[in-house]
## 1
Amino acid sequence: MDRLESLAHLARAPPLLCAQAGLQPVRSVQAVSQREDLPGHWQGAKTFRKCLNLWIAISKIASHLRTFAIAVLTLLAGTAFAATEPLELQQLRDQLKKAQDAEDKPAIIELSQRTVAIAPNDSETWDTLAQTQLESEELDGLERTLDAWQKAFKRLPAAIEDFRAGLCFKRKDYQCAEQHWLAFIATKPPRADVATDYDNLAEVCSAQARWADHAAYRSKAVAAQDTAARRVLRAVAYLRLHNWDAAYADMAKANKMDATNAQVKEWLPEFERLQKFLPQIKPLDARIAKLPNDVELLLERARVLILAGRPLLAIDDAEGAFKLQPASMRARIQLAEALLDAGQSEDAAKLEVDRYLRRGEDKHVNDEALRELGRLDARLLGNPKDADALVARARILRNLRQFTLALADANAALAINDKSAAAQFEAAQDLDGLNQAKEALLHAHIATELDPHDSNMWFFRGVLERQRADFAGAVASQTRSIEISESLVALSEREQCERRIGKTAEADADHRRIQELAPQR
């Protein structure tokens, strides 16, 4: 306090200066002018003006000194207040800083909670606590934090709206998330925060497949803060709307803004690949605009989009076709292929299509198989009781390694005609693909009884019998197959089984016959 008193002392008019001028100390310039009697040795107006100017200068200096003294007093008072902060709180802040440096999230949460319990008006620590809980997905704890934070302040902190939106989004309550992010934007935060939350709102729309709103929010994000990355994201949004020209314009702009941007480098090759397929896609766009419920057109465009490497766009079309025609096996397979390509294997499994879907060398389902499925779908749409069409479709599905769907078609055919050897044989093969050998053998027995002149049925029955260690039965079945139509695979199967039951001479004979029939190398 000695220093404060000395500063206050400086703010007063210096008595020594007054004495040297032959004056008595006064409070202001105005006081000088109001004095009725001046000392006798003040002779003339000239002397008076000199004294008056002197006092004006002294008053100005005093005013500046008072302002300085007040500022120093305020600063020292703040330092004194900080010094009076409880020791426990100081220690908590030190520990919290160390936890943040170590990125120890559980410790950050614990220390932040203890800090705001002592200092409930500490907005920065509330923010740290909420952000860490959101990142750690401690959603129930975050909700309690936001409620307590809100109660601690008379006026709602804008950040709470932002955090509530993030909480709702994590819980997939998209309407709630959109409401709170819009409320946060209404508080007029910095433009960077506005742009970020418009990005978040675009993700809300993406999760709900609201593609027009998705693109609109992307545009607002660009308007708030234009960057190469945001241009790319809006270009991708335009793809979902098939707004090709706008998409490519944004991509070109993004590349011009920053060709080194990670989003630009990732997406530019994808756009270049898609561009090669636009001459096929655009005419289909025009036809679908006139016939939006044409399943065949939708599936044709979905196929082109899959080949172009755009599975999400293909999902839109294939899903639309599947909703229009749920019995279409082509629509189901194309939708599943797109889902698998998009990394959504769980959604594909809901269609009873697994990740082992057979692909060609180009990594896509065979085009001819898809077209044949489409033809059989059309036959069954006209006549759902066409057992032969069901068996034929089951065979294609089995070749695609989709045994569950194939068995469903085989069973549907058997429900129409259980005397169909082809349906029994198909069911046997589908069950074998599902590792149900015992049930498969039952159907194989029935198939050979219904059609004893089919070598393939006897061969397959023999394979099933060998798998179940019925080697004698397997030899008999392979013998029937060979008698109908001799083949290397049947001879090889029979040789194996003959050796297992000690018929070495017969096995050697089969081996010699195999060598005779085997192509010369």
## 2
Amino acid sequence: MLHSTRPTKFFFLDSKNHCTPLSRGLIMGALFCLIPLLGHTQGFVYARLQGQPLMNTAGWSLIGAAGIGDTNGDVDTFSNEMILVPPTNNNSGAVFYNQPLDLSLCTRWSARFDFRMWEGTAADGIAFCFLDIPPAGFISGGGIGIPTNGNGLKVVFDTWDNGCGANPEVQIYSGPGYNECIAGIVKVNNTNGNLSFMRSNNYHAVQVDYDSGFVSVMIDSVVWLSGVYAPANYVGYLGFTSSTGGATDRHSIRDVVIYTEGTSLLGFQSIDTTRRLPIIEAECYSDSLWVRTRGKFRCASVDSTGSDLRLYSPAGVPIPIYKVSSFCTDGRSDSLLILLATRLVQSGDHHLVVRNGLDGNPILGDCNSRIDDFDSLTIRVVNCYVYSRPVNMLNVSVTPNNQGLNLIWESPPGIDPDFFRGYRLQRNDRPEGRQWSDMAFITQLSDTLYYTEEPDPTQDSRDFRLILQVYYNPDCAPGDSIGSILLSDPIGFLADATLFDGRLSWLPYSEAWSNPRYELWMSRPDAGPDSQRVATTTDTFLDFSKPRQLGRFRLHVHTINDQDGRYARSNYLEFSVDELELEVYNVVTPNGDGVNDAFYIRYIEAYPQARVRLFNRWGQSVYDRVAYANDYQPADLEAGSYVYVIEIPGKTPLQGILRVQR
């Protein structure tokens, strides 16, 4: 039994913009107000019957006289209207959507369309129906084209009076069959001429709302029937029927859109309902995501390989999805478990985007609802460990064997050891360029010292830097690089036995510490590396004289950081001082004027085992010394001539005359 539990009310807009109820007799000529019917926004589009310039009928069954065409009810000449029946006698036509709708699940739906009935003598009318069988067996005439065995809901716009009230009428009936006088029908008729507009050359906009069995009908923004209880909790088909009998009219519809809601799929759940787009949070380092939906989806519409979904990092980089599963009851679920091929390692907003999967569809729910292609869910990943501070090289020092380098770098300050992955040690050779190449990977956080052998550190300076790698983070930027100190002999005097003096130069070490102070050290190869400090300077060059000693020598530059004691050595340059020919100055004037006061033998210091002796004219020895140092001033000798004898082991003694003058 169909009955109304919500009274029908009509409203007009008063001078204060308030909606005021009208009696049914005062409706005509009043300005009607549009009132909310269902209290919800439009849901998902279940079906459309639209199109420009040609109506698209895909998914719809056209029955009887129904076909697309054009009427005089609009200004265009396009075939964008569905003509249900032409203005001829005893015709019927229908159009129904092929996809069934389960009203036990789709408890709320809304149909929007325009209708026109004109060009004849006021034939039967148009019905918007929900039938429990596919439309077949239509009749003509007073039945509005509704099949006699069609059980379901009928919303009828009836223009022909069969003796049950003044027509046109708006009617709602739920049950088998139809006629305008059937028991249980709810209607509003044209007693006061208020519905005469329904039959005209113009199109009229209709909205039919269904909410858990309650039906409301609105024409041109005026509510004519509201809250009529006409339940239909079964599977059926939505569509339109129409007919003519002894009278005629051209009956047409256009711009049909049917929305569904109820327990349908409404998108993703969100932790912030104030946002336009849904959002959830996920912990960093997760390799899976739990995603909940608003309403249930059909499990069969979700591809387990993840082809329905795409996940993107904050930078837009795809994150591979390994598998998607859901826990289903009766083939429905409201949660997805998304397994990722990699962990989420970056804080920030990731985006889960729905795409048409391998089946050609996105994620589908009941009532033709869906999470559509390119709909997205923001996944805010939180609590990721972030470390991006570069690690700087502290020191590069050549080893005393001139065959390797000791490298020292800083320990990353404040790093969580659990996330330390390693040091990428890189090098290049200056001054050829900045083409860095990996030379070692160190996996212990405490290892900040590295030894590397170099074939010949005397040829080029090596430049080194570090790249810190932290788990689940991009590589840190390279730290400050340092090159080894390269000591060089620009003019080659060290290798020239005829040259004793020249200039040494070296590359600065200001990359390691500011205002370095350099020390030049000389040693013998068989002695310690820092045997003799030759000079100290802040310049990067120094004038140097070879020692007046026979043998092989090594030179290197040494610099110390006064703040923390770090030091660095350059490469080592080796040179030899070979046999020297002594040159004796044979006149001495020991008068204390600083000129020729001492007996001087050039290069005698190169022969520390040499023995120098002086004899007077009677052959008596007056001076005898080993390791002579050019320091004898013969103040005790009388003026005259003396014989000198210089004896060097393994060599022929050198002798001559020394004159002492006063």
